[in-house]
Design a protein that fits this description.
The two termini are about 25 Å apart. The protein has a single domain, classed as Rossmann fold (3-Layer(aba) Sandwich). The chain is an alpha/beta fold and about 240 residues long. The longest helix is centred in the first third of the chain and has 15 residues. It is built from 9 helices and 8 strands.
Amino acid sequence: MVSVYILWVEGVLGIADMQSRVIYLHGLGSGRSSFKAGFFRERFSEMGVALEQPDLSVPSLREMTVSSQLAVVEKLVPEGETAVLIGSSMGGYVASIFAEQFPGRVIKLVLLAPAFGFPSRWFERLPEEDAVAWKETGLRAVWDYENDREDAIGYAFAEDGLGYADFPAWRVPTLILHGRQDEVVPLAYSEEYVAMHEGAELVAYDADHSLGEVLVPMWGAMGRFLGFGSGEDSANP
């Protein structure tokens, strides 16, 4: 028990002394009310670290693009500052692009089921008539989890997304946490990326896209990676 306590105290001191901020980038239609974000916010708060959670759905969910999300992050982490970015799903994809564009501003990445392959993967899954309707009407219905209601995203979201690579080529230490039963973003996308990049590490769990049932082991993996944990991930290989 004593040794565990010492590890915890050393971890608190280590992460509290970090010069870089820790920023959580939510997924599509999500926000501060996300249960994952709330869990990690509480854990970081217990260690004296404020987890920043910007709203990426600006100027609105309907008008949001990958580029507009990147602009939010760029304002948060201007030149001369650094951050640890934790990104979930679409937020993970945005975090990886930001790290590619501004490698000096990101010291580490933690990506939770990152939405690699967007937006080509979206169009592959969409029936042709739905893709045509999205382009013609300019809107596609999605669920706004932050406000618990149906909303829509504009076709500009897809057009803008096509300008970015399926697998951004960032060069910062990266931990990817992904569920084997993920039907939204298949685990194979993260496996493909890690196979191509030695600096990336993948931990897979028996979980779906939400990763809600593995928050505790993910926190363990995150602690090891960021340098404030005991090294026990509790992963289920």
